[in-house]
Protein 1
Amino acid sequence: MAIKKSDLYSSLWASCDELRGGMDASQYKDYVLFMLFIKYVSDKYAESDDFAPSVNIPKGASFKDMVALKGKSDIGDRINKRVIAPLVAANARLARSDFPDFNDPNKLGEGDAMVKRLDNLIGIFQNPALDFSRNRAEHDDILGDAYEYLMRHFATESGKSKGQFYTPSEVSRVIAQVIGITPQNTKAATTAYDPTCGSGSLLLKVAAQSGKQITLEGQERDVTTAGLARMNMILHDFPGANIISGNTLVEPKFKEGEQLRTYDYVVANPPFSDKTWSTGLVLGENGASDKYSRFGWGVPPAKQGDYAYLLHIVRSLKAKGKGACILPHGVLFRGNAEAVIREQLVRSGYLKGIIGLPANLFYGTGIPACILVIDKENAAARKGVFLIDASKGFIKDGNKNRLREQDIHKIVDAFHNQIEIRGYSRLVDLDEIKRHEFNLNLPRYVDGAEAEDIEVTRKKIKNVHLSVYPPDGRVTLTAPKATRLEVARAYAISKLGWIREQQRKLERQARESPRNFIERESHYLWGRRYLMTIVEKEVKPGVSIDHKRITLTVRPGSDEDKRKRIVHEWHKKLLHEAVPPLMQKWQHRLNVNPTGYFLQRMKTKWGSCNHIAGNIRLNTELVKKPKDLLEYVIVHELAHLLEPTHSERFAAILDEHFATWREARVELNELPLAAEAW
């Protein structure tokens, strides 16, 4: 009997709801994924006759033994001591840190609440349809697929900093294909490595593309995420994969003697612009003291670690090795130390291609990224770099963008066959790259803009107005009535550089998915997530809040617009309570005398200042963000009363009075704006 994916997924999501409560997605995922893991390995290995099963299940430590603990007052403690501890002791590749604490009252509740929650969670996995010892899956990887499915959804809900353990499946598939691994060129001895492996999804896509049981090794800085990766490997039938926790740059775990181990394939999605990459490293002058000789082309900037990870990858490849790394677009054009490294990378011949991806694909950030494809084979003979601008090929999926099958196929087909497509892909020779001083910014080489992309209207006006509108970068040009259409279009095309810059700014601004103001919908207030409860009564509409829920009371039959207005007025009330004390505090500290403040829906800004009138405007969306970020915006706008521009003097004012303003700015600009279009 086959297990249907839809049945499996719905059962797993039921368990999520059972645990959800007030727990953050980044926490409750650990319990749900462990349940899937223990159920699978128990069914497959608990009664195995194999001489050396991939996973040893000690007596008393199976899923059936967890079932026997239901109703016990100390069920959480018994799961920790009688199931998890023996399981870890019997399997060298597993660690206690891989699994959550089932006796944590802060997450699971106390007393009867904990017992009930764990009883219900175990009960969900007692479903006969989830008996993996008797059932075959529709596809061999169904459990691994379910694990990936859960991680993707957990990443979606986990917020900007906690979703980085997961690389979107579609991007992983692109990487696995463009590095060129196939069943025909792999064997059991083929090796693949991910130095920042997260939950292992990218490494597993490479293994799947190989079609064989190749050797997989990965390192992950976060201990809990390394545990996710180990479980992921087992559920995808790669129990021999070697996943070790630790800091790859400071203390790489995979070595041959005192040198880095080298691999046939290396892939990675490292943390973007890691500001702490060099902490603990002994680099010396020009990187000469690095014991693994990774920085011969130069030392990356202290606050931007992108090239540090790329150089680690280059050093970890065999003489004919191939790799790919996901990095922010800035690595293509930033100057100083990175420009020096980029020039050496191009001159080496190792850089085979660059694939520019759409914005807002990744969990944890909305900024656009690119894939750098490395190939050491035939590097000396390489005459150019193949560039693809795939930034326009995607579909909206909730509050993220996603590559479609047709987008993946187009990227891979163009890359493998070096197909040049106008406005999309092009082989750029080294002489042209040299003329651009090794700046690899894609629009310099691949012109993706068309005159047809610009809407032209003519009105009874004197001057030309060119505008780029959120959220998708729609371009309009309004010209005087007498202007010929071809002249108007030619003018717009002449401004493509400015248009692209505005569109990139909009792409970097993540946006919420639309809110419908319905039962159990997620809403944020002061940085915390709440579930909405709708109460329909013939009373005055209003909003109240407790530690878990926002309760919206409306009259029966109220529509979405009415509900939205009620919540918006409540938001303004909360801001009018929060803003005046902060204004008073900072006008004294900055010695300014503002005439007032205004609250306003803004589509592209968090705040603004009219230094002539002496007032500031604040985006009502700030009520959804942590209060310390509201304070930062107030300080920022009040500082403009002293210095209207973002000059060095303005930065000095903020440095003096609000030392963490740069961190606050980065955090705020990575948070989504409202889902509104013009």
Protein 2
Amino acid sequence: MANNIGASIEPEAVALQAGATGEVIAKVKNLGQTVDQFTLSIDGIDPSWYTLPVSSVALFPNDQDDMRIILHPPKAMEDKPGRYSFRVKIVSRENPDEIAAADLSIEIKPLLDLGLEISPEQAVGRRADYQVTVTNPHESTATVRLEAIDDRQRLRYRFDIKTLTVPGRGRAGANLEVRPNWLAFFGGEKTFGFWVATARAEEEARADFRFCTRCGHEFLPSYDDIPVIGPWYSERLRQRYGGTPIFCPGCSRRIRADALIADAEFVRTSWTNSLPRLSLRRLRRIRFPRIRFPSYARQPIIDTFKATTEDEREFIIAWSVKRARKVELNGEDVDAKGNVFVCPAESTTYTLTAINRGRTASEAIEVHPLRLPQETSSERIGAVLSTREIKVHAGSVPEPAMLQVQNLGDIVDKFSVGIEGIDESWCIRSASSVGLMPEATDQVQLSFQPPKKEGVRAGNYPFVISVRSQAAPEEVTIVAGQLEVLPAPECRLEVRPVNVSGRRKGTFRVNIENTGVSDVILAPKASEVRKSRFKFWTRRPKETEKARDTEQAQLKATDLDEGCRFQFKTKRPEVTIRAWNTAEIRMIARPKRGFMGEEKRYDITVTAAGAGVNTQPANCQLRHRPFIRSWKTIWRLFKFLVFVAILAILIWFVIHMGHDEESTGWQVLTDDPGAWWKNLRENIGGWFD
């Protein structure tokens, strides 16, 4: 029994996926009459499942403190989902027999950690074919189902294989054919966005997913009460959906939260492209006089203009405008559709203006970045931070800093230490609170270590550390600092397809995945495109862009025999690869030799090397199959043509020998074959008389 210890856990149950991180709070209270030290321990679970930033705490009588427990089930438990229970114990150092316990449970969710890719990401035409690939990184086999949908249901989809069985540590693929329906068949060029999703196949749909909560659509209606055809039609619906659908067919809403989604685009070309080009060119040459009436010009339309953010520090402003000849964002010319990344220091208003013939449309949005408390001091609390500017690499060695806390009051007091402006997981404190005598000083060690994961970007992160008195909560001292996450550009290259066979050239797709915390700008010049080289710059946020140097690298392709010429193609002069994003570049390899020769294989290596950019090369192969293997083929063709010519001359001469005095040999042969044969024998016999 623990009469002098109060212990509780919030929350008492946690649901996590294997490899994810969660946090619970253990509340400890000293119910005794003396100052005591309490130690936290966990029984019934492997130590690799949890981390204790602070394992013990000293409390005054009737004092209470919170102790963090960071839970991180190992990745190896993804194949063993279920509920695991264990016990948290609080032991008194003054009296080891005093033990308080609380129960805690972790539910390991089934993990759908599959990879979904669709290639190409954009296709142009009246119909398009896509390749959907599902990768399984686990040891066990996974059975998944594929679905495709768009927001307005303007497209039709057909998978050659709708249910895939993906082997462990392998991949499986399916072909997807996309066509516009009859409503979207007519019209000019237009871009349709759609989604391809995959989820684990289910034998039966769950009861809570039989109806859409938005539109009320019933996914698997039952027709078993209809004789003869009813059971057959119900079974056909079950085979079509294969359990709980991923999207609602009525309103296109996503139903299953565990599904993986990849987006792509289908660009429908105009039906006039199938008309004769010559007539269209003649019509385009006709110049009709333009009579402009500004009062009758159509008003520009701003479809979307919004700002989004994840950390209230960096904002993405995206827009889309129609019927505009000129678009301005805060007075600067921009494209009709695009986005820009901004990092304002204070609340800022951005105005988008669309200008047409005599008409103007504008919209404004205001972004509010995160505001931190101002630096203040207290007469009862002294706080000094050893280093105010801290520089650290994400996922690297922690950068320590010391916070010196001094009790300037006249009584014994306890001070709590808190941090704002950055995620708490980025900073580990040696103690969340300290108790001090009057005029006493103590130090709290702060270890700054931002993780290297998606969402963490290079840049400056201002933060504040608040030291608050427990006896007088209104007394607080705030110390400001700045954490700079240094840029660490890392790119991973992948070439698809790996093997290409062709007679004139081979086309590859080079995928550049930015796995670092800083952005990468791909800015090729016209001369560099012909030389198959690009330049990379790693870019920081805009306010520090001019004060920082850029790091460069070159993307190039080579082969061992130096027998190929390479060319890279991009749609825009600048391609920005945001941190943790991917860009695709088309590469064309042309063999230097001509149309004659034996089949040859070229081993191609694509690299991106430069100072400060960490990359790994990617390999691919080109099999060149010339039209003609050797001169022997041409010589044989020449002899065959000569033989055919001689044979034609002989046939013509024989036909001509059957002529008479009034008609040619061919006319006599077609009119009277008997007379032609008689004339032929007479003419040949005359040679020997």
Protein 3
Amino acid sequence: MRRFLLAICLISSAVGFSQSNDDSLLTVNNKSISVGEFKQVYLKNLDLVQEKEQRSIDGYLDLFVNYKLKVAAAVEQGLDKKPSYLKDFAGYQEQLSRNYIYQDNVTSELVVEAFERGKEEIDVSHILVTCNWDAFPQDTLEAYNRAMHLRDLALKDPNSFNALAIQYSDEPEVKQRAGKLGYFTAFGMIYSFETEAFNTPVGEISNVVRTQFGYHVLQVHDRRAVLPKITVAHIMIGTRNDSTGAAKERIFEIEQLIEKGVAFEDLAKQYSDDKNTGQNGGVMRPFTKGELKAPAFEDAAFNLTAPGEISRPVQTRFGWHLIRLESLGKLPTFEEDKKRLEGLVRTGDRSKIVTSAVTAKMKEKLGCKSYPYMNEFLAVVNDSIFQRKWQFVPFEAEANKPLFSVGPKTFYFNDFGPYIESRQGKVRPYKQIGTMLKIVFEEFESLKVQEYFKANLELVNPEYAAIINEYRDGLLIFDVMEKNIWTKAKKDTLGIENYYQAHQNQYQWEKRVKGTIYRTLTQQDMDRVLDLLRQGVGSIEVKAQLNDVEKMGLMVTEGIFEKGDAALPPTYALQTGISPIYQLGPKQYVVVHVSEVINAGTKTLDEVSGQVFSDYQNQLESIWMDDLRAAYPVTINKKALRKLKRSLNK
């Protein structure tokens, strides 16, 4: 839950940032809050505020004050000192700072390359010879030679590639997949693997390529253009609990209704089991092939050629679908896709390519200087380090020489020694001590340079400072709400019961009926339904007489319906018996057969437990906020507020 809330915070914080104004807008518990901080949060979250009165500066300022009061309460209660908070904050800080440390490293070459590759999908098979990065040299050489031998076999007979994979590849499940990976595009595989695949012509065998899994030999079967995204609407009848084939029957019934002229979107709202899209007439987010991981659905959707065209019923692992093409998209331009690509390059394995360049840039910017160290450490590090048994003995005062400096900070031999000891068995098992010392020194230097850079990042980067501050406050608010409201409400069963008893007027059923709703496309069919119902024929038999394989003339819905339910005719008067025929549209005829009228009354606590619990939490929070406003002084700088309103034309 906490990670979900903070992920939303991170996404929304990336919307954009303007230079903050340092003038104080308000103080909460004697802590000053700048105009810039409020302005940044207000403009970023304005579209998320639903209530009109809270969209004004005064209305949102009230929400903002509540937000800061909760932070003040969290600090007062010592939640900012909790080990769990400190651990979570450090984790988020580490994750977020990477974006800014590597921000300047997203080279235009990698972004352009990814954009060009993203125009194609390639179909690839591979043979894997496993070999970890930390394998001994002789094992690495043996794995490489084996991969080269398999490549030679594949070159002699390319048609045997998949048979060779089955026989020799170390890939898990190779017997089932025969080395086939299917189609992928940029960012679909490890960068080195992707690069070799895109550099190999169709029908050819690649060079041997190294990844963290081992050595690979690739065969490229096909290249095809990436299709633009399309937008479709669908109606889904789920099959999760369907053991009788009712889902298939219902989707074909709906197809006949569409053929008779009933609107697709109306049927989606009424019958689709995909409630997320059903309420929007079945419209899904745009997608291209491969994104949904539902090949049958994707194939049917991409076979539609004109907006408005509807597929035949299609079965997937989720259920049965009818699909209507809404619109054909187009591939994004480089400028339109640039920001997304930069994000992928910055966070994916491509970033490793530029890590050393980043460290070099930081060292140059911070004024780093390195000093000789190799001879002194070769004199004290021995072969026991390869058995993970070496123990560092600190250098004496005069021998503890400078190792390197970062700005005003200097690291000494005695800082490096414990790091070497901690890395025993965690770096590749090099045979030469000097080689291992060089690699570990580069690790240590890069780590300390980046730590220093990160420690000062909040002071020099306003965007980072704003986002990390939101993380800090967000974590505290989560903890303070959990302690003071959520956990308290959850445990207070008596309080919930008392709240329900005191507010029963808020939880009332309207008058309801228990019965069956019949819908047909024609007056003639509804006359037959009415005649059968008056003869006492049940709903199953009525449906059987009107529907067959060739014709679907009747839809039947049974249940309990409250006054105002969308399934009932708008003018229907709730009463027992068989209603007259209601014509709701050119091809919509409805009759309601009611067996029982349920009078209006109070909903039981079990029926509304979720709503009562939420309302009780809101009451607790309201009381708590009154207490916080009384406990912590809040002062508004009215002059700064007026100036802010003028600057935003509010």
Protein 4
Amino acid sequence: TPLLGDGFTFISGKFDQLQHAQPLTAIISAFDRYFDEVSGSGAECIDVTKNAILEATGDCCGVLTDFFPSLGQIVGSHCVIPAQIGPKEAQHRFEYVFRLMVRTIAKLSKPVVFFLDDLQWADAYSLHLITTLVTDKAIQNLTFIGCFRDDEVDNTHPLGSTLYEIRTRSVAITKIKVNNIIKEDINALISDTFHLSDSFTASLTDIVHQKTNGNIFCILQFLQSLCDGGLLQWSSVSNSWEFKNSSIEAEFFPHDKVRILVRRILHLPEKTQYALKLMSCVGASCLESTLMLFLDENIAINVKKKEMTNIDDKPSQIRKQRNDLLLFFKFAVHEGLIKEEGANYRFSHDHIQFAAYSLIPEDEKILWHLQIGQNVWENASEREKDKVIFIAVDQMNYALGLLESDGQKENLAKLNLRAGEKAMSLSTFSSSALYFDSGIQILGKHQWENNYELSLHLHNYYAEAEYCNGNFSAVGQAAGVILSKAESPSHKVRAYFILIKALCAQNRLDEALNIGIKVLTQLGKQPPSEFSDVPAIYANFNKTASIFKDTTDFFLNFKIMEDSDALIAMNFLGELLLPTYFLNQDIGLWLVDHMLQLSFVHGVNKDSACALAGFSAMLFGLGDLDGSKNVGRMALRLQDELDTQESLPRVCFIVYSGMLSRTEPLKEVSEKFLHAYKVGMQTGDIQLAMSNAYWYLVDNFISGQLHLAALKKRLEVFGEQMV
């Protein structure tokens, strides 16, 4: 539970082995509980937190409420719906705004201690997000504490790689190894706990140390078993705790932690055991609302009968049965095996979960998971389904090999598609790729013949997720499958687009350009043959330039582009501008000119402003300074008119690094670059954000607006944001 005190905040979370595929579980739950605590801390605390976060994040606050629902209760309706941008850009935006949020929390209560347990089970994106936090030098008041089992982590483990990366970025790491406790400390623990003198408890300590070898978990469980068995008990006669060493020494106590707990669980009522086994299947913790979706006696009955459908009980009978099971489950809370934390239940220790899970016969475990997943999904309301999608799909994915009918496979593949889309919306691409790949594997080798639309969606999303993961070989393979199986050119467009982006990211610009030209040809936007007619390209370019002469408002009254083919063509042309700039500027002339021709015919969109900016840069390079200035100002006016944030950094960078840098006051130009940098960070376009930051520093150096010390500090800040 978060602790809000005078001058400090303690925020904690815990990773779960069985919820590894569910992205950011520990981090989201930790901060969500923190905002819950803020909501219950009075109007003044709520107002201070709300105002500080809104001031720091601006229009991007809505990005945070998508991840942390409890924050939405604090900021209310003040959040703007985030602009729709690409998945990779959305991930960059979230990381940037998340860091702004943590900086704000750290300023509100100093220091912030952020504790995460069981890092060995953290998902890849959580480890990345932790790295961005602890290496952000702008977060001055954060202490991060991570706990992990070092016998499960080596240099090849993702956590080992993360720790190495953090060290290479000059962040000090203090490692504290927690060993078994020595006999003297065991004696002090027993003496303090039972209010007995340390000389009196020395004999008991010898037995405890012998049976537990100083493992603190085993010590506590052994003492608990002594109390439960009446070998260590309170005496109303002597008004103190009493024990008999001979009886305790004869007491059998297994050294294996799981066996210790199995023995303890087996002493509980059968229905309590059953409820614990059910919860052990979903992980170390579970919301009560989710637990009630699968707290069902019929699961065990169905498993025994090998039936995958729920028994047709009346709703009233089902509710009564679940409420009865919940009472038995809460008996485990009373026994200390489960912790109740508000609306959430958590096993008091991972080994308790493992012990409960071990009581399920090995040949039945997969069926338990399948039944739990089906119950969760079928019993959830439409409003709840988005919240339980990961739990439901993860449980059902355990049983991929048991699905026999095509209908079952198709339904689970669709659920994996939905889970993958949800993970993509959370910018957790490693998890989303796993879901999409699972959907593909479920459908099998005849999927394109039997489930064409579903297969097309799964492969397209999988390619996009792996592009965001930087796994370009997987992108090529997925795109290759789509291009060989898709039934029409329009069904291939998305795969071509992501393939071009992947090739550009690998600096394979020639291949990207060739594919782009091929797609434009298929769309009916036939480029000049081999681009060999250079005079014709320049003639058309100059003809377009003459239209813009002496005007800066040519496009302002144009309609918004709606034609789907034109929008696709504009998207591809815009993506090809970068490789043509480095490879062949003659082709670049044709591209920007063709984008403007499409705008003349079909109307304008965000790519039209970028095309105008590119046209201005081309004129500048050809020596037409007046034309470049006019078209550059036209690009800025169209950008303002369209008010599309995601294109602003590109337009500002191209225009103000060209002709307008010579005609406008440097102070004004540097302010434009700084604004474009901020918008680029907020829209996740880090590359263009840093390009604008570079020119901001250059202009300030040339103009002398900042002293060298201040300039060096700004450079360090931008560098931290770039990594």
